[in-house]
Amino acid sequence: MGFRSGLTLAAALMLGGPPAHAAAAVDPAAAQVQGFYADLTAALHAGGLTAARLKPAVERTFNLSVMAQLAVGPAWTEMTAADRAAVVAALSRYTVARYVKDLSSAANVTFVVDPAVQVRGADRLVKSEVRAPGETPTKLYYRLREYSGAWQAVDVFENGVSEIATQRADFTGVLAKGGAGALVKKLDEATARLK
User: Fold this and answer.
1) C-alpha to C-alpha distance for 86 and 155, rounded to whole angstroms
2) pLDDT value at residue 137
3) Tally of domains in the chain
């Protein structure tokens, strides 16, 4: 299945240890990314990840509404409010399930969040690196935007590839054939396979 939620296995592997630059991060966007990993680590130490434990951290860190709109593209404007809400809810379920699945095997991996945040117009780009023993580090960049005083991720780039762009390519054909209902069904089927 080609669906990706903006939450990759590489991101999941970042839980091998605490943020290396926790004390140095003063930018609120970098602090948001570090806080997300801290939440994930706490959930793991609290008896393992479950959808119920992880959902609040995902919804606080990622603006799933904006991510859904960006991934759907122009078809978003043609959807009813109910269809949009259904797509966001399905994307949220999938995103949480993907993290729960991917994090089940996270071990011996560390990550670094670069406190030097890049400003790109209204957005901020937070760079991080996943380091696994014997493997080439994976670079993850989070694009965050401020909403009501809180910085939230609206895209994730893995080694330079945008998750939103990948999702849009995946979603286009499904939407063309069956609209929002088909997309929700496809996301829910993908979620079920992750459990």
Assistant:
1) 20
2) 83
3) 1
